[in-house]
Amino acid sequence: MNKKRFAALFLSFIMILSALAPAVYASEETKKLEIELEVSDLREDLTTAVGSMEGFEPQNEDEEELVAKFNEAGDFLDGEISLAEDQGMKRVGASPKLTPVGNTIVDVTTIPARIQLLIRISRAIRFGSTELANKVVAAHTKLTEYILVGILHILNPFADEGRIMDYIQGFDALEQELLSYPDLSPNDIATIYKKASLARKLSEARKIRNQANRTGKQFLARALDAKIKEGSAVWWKIQAICREVDEAIEAIDKAIERITGPKIRVEKITFEEGDKGAIPVDQKTTVTPVTLPFEAPIKDVTVYSENAYIARVSGGAIIPQKPGNVKIVAISKDTGVKAYFDLYILEPGEYIDGIPMMKSCGYNQVINKPDGGHIGPVGYETDEVNAIEFTLERANFKVGEEFSLENRVMVFPKTAVDKSVTFKSEDESIATVDETGKITGIKEGKTKIVVTATNGVHKEFPVVIEKAEDVSVYKITSVKLSEKRRAGIFDIEIEATKDGEGYTGPVSLVVTSGNRTKNERVYLKNGYGKVRYTGFDFGTWRKEFNGSVTLEDQIELFSKTY
What we know:
Structural class: alpha+beta
Strand content: 25-35%
Radius of gyration: 30 Å
Number of strands: 31
Strand order of the largest sheet: 4-11-10-7
Keywords: Coiled coil, Signal
Coiled coil: 195-258
Protein name: cAMP factor family pore-forming toxin
Number of helices: 10
Signal peptide: 1-26
Helix content: 25-40%
Largest sheet: 4 strands, mixed
Domain BIG2: 265-342, 384-463
């Protein structure tokens, strides 16, 4: 009998023994937590994990490296699952480590945790390109370190499940920490991460421009192309400042909307099951996220458990690990908006007043409890909240503006099971706050937002509301082209107002005829300006003209046939 065949028989013996007599290998507590999970079922989980990066286009060398490492980790797990499937192996709960025949990782039971970490790394990469885009370089450096070390955990055959789970749990605290890092100011030199957001917008705009050209919207496509060229110039500018990047993105967005209409994006996520529910530990369940508004085209969400020690999300199902309370998180791939579902995991037969029981989607583990019963709020984990802190000292913003406190609250200890908090404003005439922690400035002044845990521990967060800046209203009131073109000469007259008075200052003028385009910066005085074109600018044989005038957020299109 060769060594490989002997190892296979030995493995089969171990698996049968672990299924029939788990007490040999596990403590009473471990036996209670046994979960049957076919290795082949992990294929769907891995597909979800890898798919969570779908549509992400790296825009600099740092992002390219992270995506390449992410894909390497995905390929590694794919190979391990394939080998495990070929050998017909399965994991039975917290049974002893299995040593597969061949080249699979030492402990097959760690594959689910490695997939969960891969999903969290995907979230981290997107987090860096969105919420952290306007943060200083130090925030990105620390996030990159988390991502690369996490990938090493996935690839390390000796990493145990506990170590991987602890690393996953560390991301939420890291998120809050990084959000407290300083923002780039409008006059700071744009970082490569800031410019990456412009590069992504340019990529989106080029696709829409090309589509517009194919569908007979060439005129609007030209206006968008002009903004693409202006944005590209900012991207290539070595010393471009953040204000220039933001203005370029805003201008491109407005040009895109003239073609596609207002872009509808996910603003909120709810669950069909409500915001809380309970399930026996021996049953699996599911939640159904709903993205709002319904018209938002990108409805993809990723669902994961905030504490994978209590429950995991696998194959679309929530799989309890032990009794306790846990938040199930749904995050939009479109905007990063999150929603939380409070899940109470109970012993079989138990229930909680006011908490609806969830529908089971399958049997989870064998736990016999002879009698049902009624209990108070679940308290299997005894750690309670003893302190609340914030990632920044205070918030200063203007009347009418909003500030989210939700991701800037830190609840201690980290092992506390119920970390939910409520928000209340001490003076709602100055600032209001909703249940999610979104603060809105009402009038100039100072107040405090009181953040309170369910056990009464609270902390005050200072808020300073400043006077809002006066916002001017611009309007292009008239764009007139000469009725006739004489000897190749014609004029374009522009009239505009600012706050109802004649505007004095520059406007952007784009004139196109055939394959020739002229870009001008026209200065208006007391609301009026004129530009003259001759046969040297546009040949006398050209008859069709179109273009646009842009003033701040106003765009006026025109066309003329001579």
